[in-house]
Structures are given as structure tokens and as C-alpha cells.
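look at this stuff:

>
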Amino acid sequence: MTFRTVTVAGGGLAGSEAAWQLARRGLKVRLYEMRPEKITPAHETATLGELVCSNSLGGEKTNTTAGILKAELSKMGSLIMECAEKARVPAGSALAVDRTLFARLIEEKITAEPNIELVRAELTELPEEPAIIATGPLTSEPMAKALAGITGEDFLYFYDAVAPIVDVSTVDMTRAFKGNRYGGEGDYINCPMNEEEYKAFWTELVNAETAPRHQFEEENMRHFDGCLPVEVIAKRGEKTLLFGPLRPVGFEMEGHEPCAVVQLRQDNEEGTLFNIVGFQTNLKWGEQERVFRMIPALAEAEFVRKGVMHRNLFVCAPRVLDGTLRFNGHQGLYIAGQASGVEGYMESTAMGLAAALFAAAREKELPVPEFPKETAVGSLLNYLQTALPKSFQPMNVNLGIFPKLGTRKIKRRTERCEAYAARSLEALDKFMEDNRKLFTIEG
């Protein structure tokens, strides 16, 4: 049987994953990536799969919901998970990667796959079906307008921000210490502040000058609570940061707990670069250095990458998509990644994988699979279908979107996650067995 070529628009995590999954199932793929012809405000390279925010992909143990999702993706042969494992850097219980190596590995796999044709050009209108739109939260204006045309409504949008990165050799380790929360040497560099230092820092942070935005951005700005700029969190109250990215709980210094602790996390394989955890920001670049150097350990720090802020786009999934990430009224037009209404690297990857499976099933005339709601992937897909359109917001994987365990009550969150994980992976095994032909890799 001869299959039609599937177009995938966007070479980020979701698009790369979708192209890989389709190609491994014997389908020809034409993957479009507009970089370097056209660069986004947040990208720095033209490499496929470039991470523009944190280098952490979240928890990797199944006692977290992020870990459950990763376990499912690995079981289903995720390209992104395979490359992440090879590019990992120390990050405690999280999976963090050397972002340069990670992206290079993805691009090497994609370009070496004979069923994938990589086209370096911008798509300014919707391609012929079958197609998967995975242009992501930084979708260019022409494609955004094309998508808005078929949804029958304006795109919803929110804003995302990127944390600064420092040269670790310039961190004053006499004012910092290595360790994980609640003990142990650990992988994080922790920069404590006493009460006087914290209050001075907070005052300057809330009064610092932010980068200008266009008028239409100011009028319509919406933040996703999971990735708020640090200055926005600070403006909610003097102590708000102490319950968020600067929480001191679990750290002791000479028998007492510091007032605040700023954490740095390794950002590259060599361990020379560290990002400031939770410090996504829209401050002007000069203000970033001025204010963040008020953290004692960063007084002389060299900022090798400043924080930036950019617009993110997503569709109102429960209104415009069916249960298989396909646009209503279309036979073969899908959306994947963050633009589909999920939030997070691995959630975006999961939607790329799912969209590819749905498209492959239809192209190969196989039964279209229905992910079990008990799985992390299935729970995300269910959320996209069942959320209230009026208040729809992008969603991370979390226990709240999984079906309840029933009458069984487990107090500790980690134990609850393990119970959900056991049920999830059992359901996924059955799902893959029931769809054995779809999970048969060719070549």
C-alpha cells in the first residue's frame, strides 16, 4: 500500500517527536522548520528541539506525575526521551539535559531517518492534509492567522519567560553551598539570604524596570501560573517568593534556617553553566544584573544569558479539536505540542507522539486508538476534550486530571503517585497490546 506524505510543521519537541513516530511506522514525512530563515524572539539557534526555557524536563521518578509521563513516553519509544537520557546532566531527582547536546542529538536522528525530508522554510499557510501543526507557542503571525481562520475565533494567548544563566565559576561559593533540599550534598547550588538581604532584594525587584511590550500585548497580557515571571510573583506580596522559588524549607545553615534560598541548577554537560531556578523574568537586561546581583553569592556573577519574555499561543482545545487532536471539520489536520493546550516540555512531546499515532492509524487504515484515561497521555487528551471552553487554560500533567483511584485512600503524595503509576503503566501495556499493529516499528 502506498501512503500519502504527512507534513509536520515545526521542528520543536512535539514536531520532531511526531515526525519520528510517523517515519518509524513507514510513512513519508516532510518536516518544516522555519529557522534559520526566520528566528523567533526566544530561540538562539536553528537546531531542531532547542529548549528555550529551563533545561529541566521535570521529575523522572514515578512518585511524581512528571515521572509517570516520562515512563509512558519511554515505553512507547519516544525520540525525545531517548535523546534526553543521552544528554542528561546532574539535577537530583529531575531529568535535566545539556541543551546543546540534547538538540544536536535530536537533529542527528531526524536527518539520518530516510523517511523524513527536512525543509528549512516557513509555512505561511496551512499545508495539504494529512498534516500536523506543531509550530508551538511561538507560531509565526502568518501561520497563527491561518489557524485562527479555521478555528473561527481569535487565538488565545499567554506569556512565558526564560530564566537567566550564569557562569558557575563566577558564583561566590563562600556565600553559597551545594545540596538538595532536606539534606545531602546534592546537585544544586544554593544561595541563601538573611532577612535584611531578602527585604532589600524584594524591594528592588518589585520596583525594577521591565522590558517594553507592544500596546496589543499590554492590553491582552495573560500569564500561565506555572511559569510566572519572578517579578510578577514578588508583586503579589513581600513573602510570596518565600513560598515559591525562594522557599528556604529543608535547608539549615549552622543550625538555623535561612530567610530565603535561591537555587542554581546545572544547565550544560560540562557543569560550567547554571540557570537560576524559578527566575523567569521580563526585567530589562541591565536591571536583571543589578537586581539579581543583590543575591550575595551572585554579587560578581557573569550572566551568560539574560532572561527574556515572549508570547505563547494556544487554541481553545475543547471548542476546536476532537478527541484525537484533529481540528473539527477536517479529515487529516492535527495540532500538537503547546499550541494544542498543554504546558510543559514533556506534555508537548506527548501530544506530538499522540498526534502521530492518530494520523498514522488513519493513513494506514487501522483502528484509531483511544488512550486510556488512566494514563498520563490519556488524561491530558481527556482534559483537552472536556475542559470548560470559557475558562480554558494550558495544563500540565497532574493527579487532578487522572481518574480517581476509587475508595482507596493514600495520604502521602509520593505513594499516591506510585499507585497511579502502577495503574497507568498496566493500562498502557494493554493499550499497546490492543493496538499492536500501530506499535509495530518498520525497518
The chain has a mean pLDDT of 90. The two ends are 16 Å apart (CA to CA). The first strand starts at residue 6 and ends at 9.
